[in-house]
Model the fold of this input.
Amino acid sequence: MAKDLAKALADLKEDEAVAIVKEKLDAGADPMGVLNEAGKGMEVVGTRFSKGVYFIPDLVYSGEILKRVNELIKPKLKAGSDKKTGGKVIIATVAGDIHDIGKDIVVFMLDVSGFEVYDMGVDVPIQKIVDKIKETGAPVVGLSGFLTLAYDAMKQTIDAIKAAGLREKTKIMIGGGQITPEIVKYTGADNFGKDAIEAVALAKKFMVAK
Amino acid sequence: MAKQWEEMTPAEKRADLDSKWLSPPEAKYANAEAEKEFKARVQRILDAVNMKQPDRVPVVPMVGFFPAYLAGLTPYDVMYDYDKLMSSFSKFVLEFKPDGHLSVMNSPPGKAHDILDYKLYAYPGHGVAKEHSYQCLEGEYMKANEYDALIDDPTYFFLTGWLPRVMGALDGLKMLSPFTNMTEMYGGFTGAALIPFGLPPVKAALKALMDAGDEALKWVGTVGAYGAAMTAAGFPGFFGGGTKVSFDTIGDTLRGTKGVIMDMYRQPKKLMRATEQLTPIMVKMGANMAKQNGCPIVFIPLHKGADGFMNDEQYKKFYWPPLRDLMDGLIAEGCVPFPWAEGGYNTRLKVIKDSPKGKVVWGFDTTDMAQAKKILGDVCCITGNMPIATLSVGTPEDVKNSIKKLIDNCAKGGGYIMMSGAVVEDVPPDNLKMMIDATKELGVYK
Done:
């Protein structure tokens, strides 16, 4: 069997990836090193997605494989050794909208890309998002919504961030099935992404701009 | 004597449904003008469906609760008060004058769902605000290891496995034995199969079903009265029925998006077998409704096969075969399948070009319509794509520009119906009015 965990994960070979992790940990490998290898595999998954080789099912499946890998590694990690260093990002599906599939993929991809993600869930009241920005000081906020009712909820959320005096130091990206440049303008967001990889790219860009 | 339905060929069934749509036997028109307009509207739609050039592009906005919002009401109001449902939806059609209406079926009977403790959707006053529409709560209502049970006997699985999970009041149905056990008295077969019906949890479930049925009857009274009133005023219903592709039945309703994705990798054969098993059931669902309503068009909202939701190979393996089979099955029953591709379908156009020629209507949301016309123009009627974002936040002038562009790209030679790309909820009324009026102005064939 190949011992290349990154490759097994990148190629979505579930059983092989899990077997390699078990073998390595049993042989006394450094769990942090194994986790980093898995991270490299996930980077390839992301690259393949942005090149149109992989699609949503591949991202979701890689997430499930990674979950199994993490379950094996996590008990052996020293507390705090896997601390995120990419910066803080708040993600929420806006008030009135309860859709979570797209948001969850964004959260997952941001997480594996090293961001410290605050996933606020769905149907998140405006004030809670404002409070979370104050509490965490996150410089990037991602607002998700699938329905057209999200247009106004996004606009109202961004207006409230503005009213709280936080807009200058917060970059805001939006996303969802019916989001277009027209809606970016309407809501007053900084930009939108059409998928999770674009969300990661935007977050990275926003972090550098800070 | 007229031929029995079962003896008719698919073409005869279709002709029967078309003629019932054009001249509903039970129609009572308000006046001669209304009758003339009714027939002209159906003919306009039929011409487009049949890839001929009508007098002008038909326009049918895909409205959700827009008529309620227009009347200053909430979705909750019309889901619980059928008089309000009737008055607001009638007012919309009479004022905006689209070529077809979408019935009031999109506004389900709220109380019936309360009685059943319905959990598959959050709906106004139950998980979403009264001001918003209902939204699906996806979950693994069928477990990964239950494919065999589903394939073995779909109805028994729905009855005893799925229903108790999505309708709290039907928990007792878990205790039912298969109805097919009631073969005969001999050996106590019927006796044994009847036992569950004496048990209190089963009785409670049956009582809930009967109470919900009473409510559904009240609701369908309004559905029927609304259809009759619109016919009287000269406005035909657009859809005869609706159904789902079996892959979406599994992905949306049984396993959820994540569940069905995992199944594509972990148990592809069982997933495919289950889609095959469910397809004839999905055909019957749409065809029976169309026959009952005397209108051939069967709505099929498409979800999990959109651009990005699977790769080309997966689409051809898992999604297209059940969709193609569903369309063939509906056509054999005289129906016109109306697959409605939510999201983008740009990468699927070459695959769906293999749709039964001249016998389907493809509806699109955000797909590039110039490309769609180019690829499907000689295959079938296409529709949709009036951007919901523009209808929601644009000006009437923006809407008019979009209509002009769509007509330029799609209307040539016929075979196009103007529709919104997604369901119209709380948009500025002037924008929707413009969508209809601009199509009437710019969509005339000369």
Remarks:
- Chain A touches chain B through 28 residues (CB under 8 Å).
